[in-house]
Amino acid sequence: MNCSNRSLLKRSIVLLSLMVLTAMPGCSGEPTGSKIYQKNCSQCHGRSGQGLKQLYPPLENSPYFSQKISKLPCLIVNGSPGPVKKAMRTALMPPVTTVRTSELPDLFVFLQQQWSAESMDISPSMIDEWLLSCTP
Amino acid sequence: MSLLAFAVLMQGCSREPQEPLPMLGVVDVPYTFTDQDGNQVSQALFNGKIYVADFFFTTCPTICPLMTSQMLRVYEAFPDQQDLLLLSHTIDPEHDSVEVLYDYAKRLGISTSRWHMVTGPKNEIYDTAKRYMLAAMEDKQAPGGFIHSGSFCLVDQNGQIRGYYRGTEEESVDRLIVDIKRLIDELQ
Question: Mind telling me how many Å the CA of A88 is from chain B's nearest CA?
């Protein structure tokens, strides 16, 4: 009983320090882009970008993080472009309505760091520009 | 040392006689739906079987992908179990035709004989959700256009509901897998 009490105490200390750490702004271990990813993208693409079977593609080395990156803002905001045969709709990505366009720059930094060999500086104004070219 | 204490404590717990899973009501569904292979699926298919039911739609951007990956864990946990079936109802039958469900199931790599994904008249599906005591409704404001429960409902071989589990949470689905094993043991 003594032992389990002590382990409980140890666990509470770890938990408490974790809570203090995450509460300190700027000191949190998780970068903003990672949080945006986990909140908006991980449901389908997985917490570590692994995807799910043939249903949701894995993100490792996706061309959307390198040569097709200018298409990524429209893909996220509007989903995959149509027209496509109705039966194939499940193969398409739905619009991600929960993400704000102001969050895209941080998200893009994270996506490139995690899953792309190449990374380039994407400014918010580039993303705005690319969003103007969307064909819904 | 603390691990040891924990292990001893746990063992103490498992020696206690286990409470049987609760009986939460009998499911009675009078409708016939169509699954991803175009087969007619009615309640008769589930007579004498343990099964897990849920409500989803294939283009759902929020909780369904998590539910699908968790239901897949249940599917993969019992590869050779003939007494267990999975039953997912689409709440967006206008979009989720047999072809769409077929495509979805094929991408998931699942076998229809173990996991039926069904579509049918919308009012019958929504009424079925009520019979499982699960929420499902249309809402243009919600992401994807529908509000629905993310729960999995465990039903035993007599049509009795034996538990609800959060289909979006790994720990809750771990518990579902344990409870399914208990029901299977009870069958033998």
Answer: 7
| List of chain A residues whose C-beta atoms are within 8 Å of the C-beta of residue B72 | 52-53
Judge: A3–B63 Cβ closer than 8 Å, yes or no.
no
**Residues A132 and A58 sit within 8 Å (Cβ to Cβ):** no
Backbone φ and ψ for A79, nearest 5 degrees, come out as 80, 180
- In degrees and rounded to multiples of 5, residue B170 shows phi and psi of -60, -45
Among candidates A6, A52, A86 on the partner chain, residue whose Cβ is nearest the Cβ of B69: A52
Which helix (H) or strand (E) segment is B41 a member of? strand B40-41
The 10s digit of each residue's pLDDT in B68-118 is 999 999 999 999 999 999 999 999 999 999 999 999 999 999 999 999 999
Element counts in chain A: helices (H) and strands (E): 6, 0
Model ipTM over 0.90: no
Q: Phi, psi (5° rounding) for residue B176?
A: -60, -45
Determine the Cα–Cα distance for residues B32 and B182; give it in Å rounded to an integer: 29
Contact flag A43-B63 (C-beta cutoff 8 Å)? yes
Report CA-CA distances (Å) from B104 to A10, A57, A91, B150, B160: 46, 13, 8, 19, 29
B99 interaction partners in chain A (CB closer than 8 Å): 86-87
pTM: 0.80
- Token readout for A27 is 């000191």
Q: How far is CA B99 from CA A85, B34, B56, B58, B94, in A?
A: 11, 11, 16, 12, 12
> How far is it, in rounded angstroms, from Cα A7 to Cα B8?
14
State how far the Cα of A89 lies from the Cα of A83, in Å rounded to an integer: 10
